[in-house]
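Researcher: Re-running this chain for the archive, since the previous output was lost when a drive failed. Same request as before.
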Amino acid sequence: MLNVSKNSKGKNMLSLVSVIIPLFNRQKTIQRAVDSILNQTYTNIEVIVIDDGSTDDSLKIINDYKKKYPDIIKSFVMERSAWNGEVVPSVRVSNNIKYGLSFSNSEYFVLLSGDDYFSDLDKFKNDIEFLEKNKKYVATVSDFTFKYETKEDCICNYNSQKCFWSGKYAHISCFTFRRKALDNLLNIFCDDTGFIYSIMITGKWK
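Model: Regenerated structure tokens:
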């Protein structure tokens, strides 16, 4: 069963899930990404977008969503001079993720790259239900499909658990994290593989 509490008005409330989106020049894919969050069957969500100074229409698209969903979507723009002018993309993404995490106090977090999306609209519901029932677990992970944009109809399906244990990686967008896992990782490099391997220090994941 999902954890349902009551707010100050006596209405039932599900545990809040924060979705952090690090974004840079993804005008062709960001709408699909955001829609895959808003269309989830789990409804108590917030979306925190950290734009890294996009020069295309990515931020305009996000601002349009903010007008339509002001209680759900937040966005922050990082100047390219941020992080001491750091130019390595993975380092900037890591810093922006940590910056985004600082704006929420939710119990659960999901990280979604601006060019990814959730195909399973029950993902949040299923993940949170599992974590509520299994307090010893700090995260859940989903399988993923990779589509090569430069190759027509070239789609690869990956089992995230097998990828991890074979020395490859499980994509960061596949995970739903409990806050205590992230609190222990805020000073650790947050991008994909390094971040995920760090979870093993924190606790169990499924």
